[in-house]
Amino acid sequence: MFKRILSGSALAPLLILLLLAGSRVMLFPLLMLAALFLLWEWVRLHEAISVVVFAPLLGAVWLLLGTGFMGHADWIGMELVLILGLLLSLGLIEYQPGMVITERIGFRFMGVVYCGVPLLLLDGIRGMEHGGSMICFLLIIIWFTDSGAYFVGRKFGRRKISPIISPNKTWAGFWGGTGLGLVAGVGSVMVFKTPFSLSEGMLLGLVLSLSGQVGDFVESLFKRESGVKDSGQLIPGHGGLLDRLDSLLFAIPVFAGYLQLRESGLIWGALGFGG
Which of 57, 146, 150, 190 has the fewest CB atoms nearer than 10 Å to its CB? Predict the structure, then answer.
């Protein structure tokens, strides 16, 4: 447990400092590096690593990240279709009798979306006004949710949520993570310079906490299907980068969607939230 706490918190202050004092340009190489490790672990969950498989996937995600960073987000849809076409074309070469090639192609394309699009959206959030503070706000909620779920579940957990998918997750851990995530949402509004009101902080704390816990379960499902305990061994006490970022990969799109709706003013004015 000590190894888990130490490895989980060692880099947190540096990351927050980078987000608050650094720039989008400084964050971008970290996103590129994260994409490399996430995709490596994703491919390993489903098949043997090879240059023929891994290089096109990594190139696809780096293309998406670079396109967003250069301000051409309107190209992303076209690029995703072209990436799918590339993977299908490679499948024509790779196919052997008895091989379920469409399943393999589906896993690979899902890896591009699952690992790449959240990082693309995170870069987009960083480019917004107060972007660094808003990402810190998101990270704190997810970190508190993970910690609450782990420690409350470890101490008080009895009833399992879904033993087939994740035998260690309990209802006590779920409520502990949700409660601490909600508290983190309210507290982070007061700590970081974000455009959110306290009521928004409460709402986001709840929604992002729930989203993160769903993401945790989804990654557990991937691992159960592949018959492994961890996606990798990169982080002591946590496993791989997918194990560490599973909650965040689900929460980022939800947060980005909220920011988009908030900016449009479609809902939040009617609810009385800050515009």
Answer: 190
Instruction: Tell me the C-alpha distance between 132 and 134, whole Å.
Output: 5
Furthest C-alpha separation in the chain: 60
Place of tokens 């496993």: 239
Q: Where are the beta strands (DSSP E) in the chain?
A: 160-162, 166-170
Is the pLDDT at 268 greater than 80, yes or no?
no
Q: How many CA atoms lie within 13 A of 4 on its CB side?
A: 11
For residue 136, give the nearest of 184, 72, 64 by alpha carbon. Answer: 184
First to last CA, the chain: 42
- Residue (of 83, 89, 156) closest to 115 by Cα position: 83
Q: Please check whether residue 23 is in contact with residue 132, taking contact to mean a CB–CB distance below 8 angstroms.
A: no
Residue 236 is predicted with a pLDDT of 54
Residues 6+ apart with CB under 8 A from 106: none
pLDDT at res. 272:
53
In angstroms, the CA 195 to CA 200 distance is 9
The whole model's pTM is what?
Answer: 0.90
- The three-state secondary structure class of 157 is coil
* Nearby residues of 110 by Cβ (< 8 Å), 6 or more positions away: none
Q: What is the mean pLDDT of residues 146-168?
A: 91
Cα dist from 226 to 42, 106, 133, 231, whole Å? 10, 15, 37, 9
- Per-residue pLDDT tens for 61-94? 999 999 999 999 999 999 999 999 999 999 999 8
SS (H, E, C) 12-25: HHHHHHHHHHCCHH
Single-letter code of the amino acid located at 187: G
